[in-house]
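#random but structural
TW: two for the price of one
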Amino acid sequence: HSNPIRLVIDSIGVNLDVQSVGVDSEGTMETPDVWGEAGWYRKGAKPGEDRNLIINGHYDRVGGAPAAFWKLKNVKEGDVVGVFDSYGRLFEYRVLQLDYVDVNDPSRLQVLDDAPGEATLTLITCGGVWQYGLGYNQRLVIKGSLVL
């Protein structure tokens, strides 16, 4: 298995480069340092592995202009998310559910868990209401499973 390098969601016109992200000094998952790229959480799965492949992205930029995952809110159940790895192989995941999770919800980190023996995809971006000094009060979480 190799690292993801491209994320494509044809149904909403998304085609993004993917960079690797880790966690910061406070233990929070990093976000991409480029507004227009997605971030693959390198401690999660690689494409096609029987674990949780986690990819995040910015919803908007400072000032409110659209960023990489601006259109993610338009994804529907049943849509296909394509992930290309560094060998050029395509892995397709079908969207199963979309949820908004409060940033202060104690169970919010469960979206990062692996489903034992299942190849799943989790896409994460900001959602809800933006509040000055606090940021967005929710995260949009999209879950999918590998199409075999």
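TW: number two ↓
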Amino acid sequence: MAKKGQYIYEYKHPAVTADTVVFGYDGKELKVLLIKRGEEKEAGTSAYVGEWALPGGFMDVDKDKTIAHTAARELKEETGLKLSVKDFKEVGTFSDIDRDPRERVITVAHYALVKLAEVQADTDADKAEWFALEEVPRLAFDHNRILQVASKHLRRDIHFEPVGFDLLPRIFTMPQLQNLYESILGVTFDRRNFANKMKRYNILAEVDDGTPRRGTRTPIRYRFDKKNYDRLKESGFQLEF
């Protein structure tokens, strides 16, 4: 019997989940955070136990204000990473009828950028690890497809948002910045041309920490100038390489 205020419909309701592609950068290559699925402690059934997957899980309909809150909660529970809901960018909804063997599940996928950090599995995850994109194994559910879509969004967004700077340390060198953009876009830039273009955008500020430079072999260090970037963005600016 339905509780007071509870609606009963003729049609069954699908479950809703959030899955997140978390990108990190180790100074050499772009990486993605994966979890190894364990037994589901709060469910009567399990799926893909022992296989690698993206962090994610079911929406708590009583507590999660938005699907981004679900993504943030599940990420923290499964890997220990604590992000704000503002850190998640929605990349799409995946609703194929057979995408989850347990029941009809619709997932809303996101991606997030973090500075590479230690992660530790918890709740339904047996392990959490960073993988280079070229070394990602076959994933549970349709997570390889979600990763592919999220990577495409990242490559697009890098022209409109300062996403690269979210992955670098606060102070960085031009070679570090170039290597990151090459990793994301899958291309190789001419060193001098890349540096000249980035300097012309006026979104990098040189950092003088008092350390003497030893000729041209010691790279100049920079920080990201967000004020200038925001000013350019208001005028319709986008990064071109």
